[in-house]
Design a protein that fits this description.
Layout (H helix, E strand, L loop, with lengths): L14 H14 L16 H9 L1 H19 L5 H24 L9 H11 L4 H15 L4 H13 L12 H21 L4 H16 L1 H7 L6 H20 L17 H8 L3 H19 L3 H12 L15 H14 L1 H24 L7
Helix pairs in contact: 3-4, 4-6, 5-11, 5-15, 6-7, 8-9, 9-10, 12-13, 13-14, 15-16
Length: 368
């Protein structure tokens, strides 16, 4: 036991406890300087402050170097590397994917099956997207720490996918930032003429889902959330298709619309209940006339915007004689199967008819 990095004296009565503590610290992380490279943590206060933000990722990378990579490259012992890869493939990646499915968190980047389906349509092998998928799996496993994270960041950027933050910030800072954002969003919604109660509810829900992973998981299991989650999922699938097949870039940046603004408009455009649509239209019509009665140009813009309701989940069945829609159906067949593609096509036809009917309900304002 003395020869290994975690060696303890076998005669020590606390040998088992010390070895367990050392192994646990190496696997879970110490969140301090013990497992960081010495030359990166040499008393330089400025360096320490900067590196402390990334210390968990750096620590995991350093542990990977010492316990996995160095034995394979310098000592001729590939066992730790093989075991790490197999463990990541058999436990870490599947467990993370199951958790993401439970909390309904879909990855923005294309899956391997989606890339293959797009390649069948375009003839393009999408090598950068495949590289992004591979580095994402590596990062999901997390065995190489900051190395896999940086590689994934670079690959996602080159593939045109969204690039997200690399590290976790302290919980109180996250909570403070999200709380301030929620308050600012609430004030913005009130200034836009939204109902105070509706705006408060929307921002509270967003705050819970932003700050607490458990809160997001619980919220996403509620029956009232299922239609919204389904729309998000199908919107994500359409976005990936457009990126792979039609080469439409993914919007970069962290901008997110204020969830407390335009809630009634969204409800009107998304509902399949025409009675509810009529009720919502009455509420919106009164709100618009109360706010813009002396500005007929703005009043016209609001009603015109309400009347425009294209299907964002499915290509138009009327454009290009329906060829775009047919191609999308073939793509969905390859990725999800015939039953799912048929369901989405059927629902798109129904949505198209409902959207046209709701657009006809919207008042027309004539400027003189």
């Amino acid at each position: 036991m003395r020869g290994c990095r975690f060696g303890v004296d076998a005669k020590d009565p606390f040998a088992q406890e010390k070895l367990t503590l050392a192994l646990t610290s190496a696997i879970e992380g110490t969140y301090d300087a013990r497992e960081l490279p010495v030359h990166w943590w040499g008393g330089n206060k400025m360096a320490e402050d900067v590196l402390s933000i990334f210390k968990w990722n750096i620590e995991k990378a350093n542990t990977f170097n010492k316990d996995v990579w160095r034995p394979a490259v310098k000592d001729g012992n590939p066992v730790p590397l093989v075991v790490s890869i197999l463990t990541a493939a058999g436990i870490s990646v599947p467990a993370t994917k199951l958790l993401n499915e439970f909390i309904s968190k879909r990855k923005a980047g294309a899956t391997w099956r989606e890339i293959n389906a797009a390649s069948d349509i375009t003839g393009n092998e999408h090598f950068m997207q495949r590289a992004a998928w591979l580095t994402d799996v590596m990062n999901l496993a997390g065995v190489a720490g900051i190395y896999s994270t940086l590689a994934n960041q670079a690959a996602q950027a080159l593939a045109g996918n969204k690039v997200h933050g690399m590290v976790f910030v302290a919980g109180n800072e996250v909570f403070l930032t999200d709380m301030v954002g929620a308050i600012a969003g609430y004030v913005e919604a009130l200034n836009a003429g939204e109902d105070p109660v509706d705006a408060a509810g929307a921002m509270a829900k967003q705050l819970v889902m932003d700050v607490f992973q458990t809160g997001r998981a619980i919220m996403n299991q509620l029956p009232m959330m299922q239609d919204e989650l389904q729309r998000r999922s199908e919107a994500r699938d359409r976005g990936v298709y457009e990126q792979l097949v039609n080469e439409k870039p993914v919007t970069q940046g962290d901008f997110r619309p204020n969830p407390a603004i335009g809630m009634r408009e969204k409800e009107f455009k998304q509902t399949a209940d025409m009675a509810q649509a009529a009720e919502l239209l009455g509420i919106l019509t009164k709100r618009y006339f109360d706010k813009f009665a002396d500005r007929p140009d703005l009043l016209q813009q609001k009603f015109d915007s309400l009347a425009k309701n294209p299907d964002r989940l499915f290509p138009s069945l009327e454009e290009d004689s329906g060829l775009g829609a047919a191609r999308f159906v073939g793509y969905l067949n390859d990725v999800f199967g015939t039953d799912e593609s048929t369901r989405r096509l059927r629902e798109s036809v129904v949505r198209d008819a409902l959207n046209k009917a709701k657009s006809e309900m919207v008042p027309k304002i004539e400027l003189h």
